[in-house]
Design a protein that fits this description.
This protein has 5 helices and 17 strands. The protein is α+β, with helices and mostly antiparallel strands. The strands form 3 sheets. Strands 3, 4, 5, 6, 9, 10, 11, 12, 13 and 16 form a 10-stranded mixed β-sheet that branches. Strands 1, 2, 7, 15 and 17 form a 5-stranded mixed β-sheet that branches. The protein has a two-stranded antiparallel sheet with strand order 8-14. The termini are far apart.
């Protein structure tokens, strides 16, 4: 009888312990569900990427304060649009084409949003179709700078013939060298012999050391940040100053180097043309 009573008491006690444990578990679950996200920044990051809008980029090719106008005049005439470089060489421009690729937008915290599949061929002869392009589905955020390659990355250089901006029919691909021309500028200069033809020719490209000419351009948004919002499409206005390609960091002498496709002068030009781009305005 005493043994049965003892088992009964033990049973009641164990049931109370089980109830207490169950109650404690319920309370713990309630508190855990009310607890703040341990990483609210990541949560906000994910949320922002669910909301996007397009951003338009508009590029104007200039020579300091002059808009570049193309001319095939050889030699100059009185009406030929002419420009003067830092070496005091007078020249005209008949062709101006270059690639912009691998665009990324910088956030205030120093991280980047990398825009996927951005390969654009800027052609001064076709300002309507090539000097204005759209970055699709940019996350709703603020950005303080824009960075991009002037040229084409090594992966796409090794991918053979492609389409769109990278189509060889754009006359920016060396079939004999299996790679892209990153920057092409042709024209006429009175500083070099011409023999009745254009005598200024810069075809810059290549990604193999020691003449890897892939260069990054950095455009800080100093006057105002880029505020991507779902309610409106923002436009970034850039100026590409061709004279910077011939003076900053290296002054190019047209009488000495009027035609360049490789070597040390090509490297100097690549270092220069990465500095061509400045922000003109951002409109929301």
């Amino acid at each position: 009888m005493l043994l049965a009573f003892a088992f009964f008491i033990l049973y009641i006690y164990s049931m109370k312990i089980a109830k207490l444990l169950s109650l404690a578990l319920v309370i713990a679950l309630i508190f855990s569900s009310c607890k703040k996200d341990p990483n609210p920044i990541d949560e906000e990051h994910v949320h922002n990427h669910e909301n996007t809008n397009d951003v338009v980029v508009n590029i104007t090719n200039v020579a300091d304060n002059q808009i570049i106008q193309l001319s095939s005049d050889v030699p100059f005439t009185a009406s030929t649009p002419k420009y003067i470089n830092a070496n005091n060489d007078t020249f005209s421009v008949s062709i101006l084409k270059y690639y912009i690729s691998n665009i990324k937008l910088k956030r205030p915290n120093g991280s980047y949003y990398v825009v996927p599949e951005t390969y654009f061929l800027i052609n001064a002869a076709d300002t309507i179709n090539t000097c204005k392009f759209v970055l699709k589905d940019i996350p709703v955020e603020n950005y303080i700078a824009m960075e991009f390659i002037v040229g084409v990355d090594s992966t796409r250089n090794c991918s053979g013939a492609q389409t769109g901006a990278l189509d060889p029919l754009n006359d920016m691909f060396w079939s004999w060298n299996q790679g892209y021309i990153f920057f092409k500028c042709e024209g006429y200069t009175s500083s070099a012999p011409h023999w009745g033809i254009s005598n200024l020719s810069y075809h810059i490209g290549g990604f193999i050391p020691p003449f890897n000419l892939i260069r990054w351009a950095n455009v800080p948004f100093t006057s105002t940040s880029l505020n991507v919002d779902q309610d409106h499409v923002s436009t970034i206005y850039l100026k590409a100053n061709l004279l910077e390609a011939f003076r900053n960091q290296n002054v190019i002498d047209f009488s000495v180097s009027p035609a360049v496709t490789g070597g040390p002068v090509a490297k100097q030009l690549a270092n220069n043309y990465s500095n061509m781009f400045v922000l003109s305005a951002i409109k929301h």
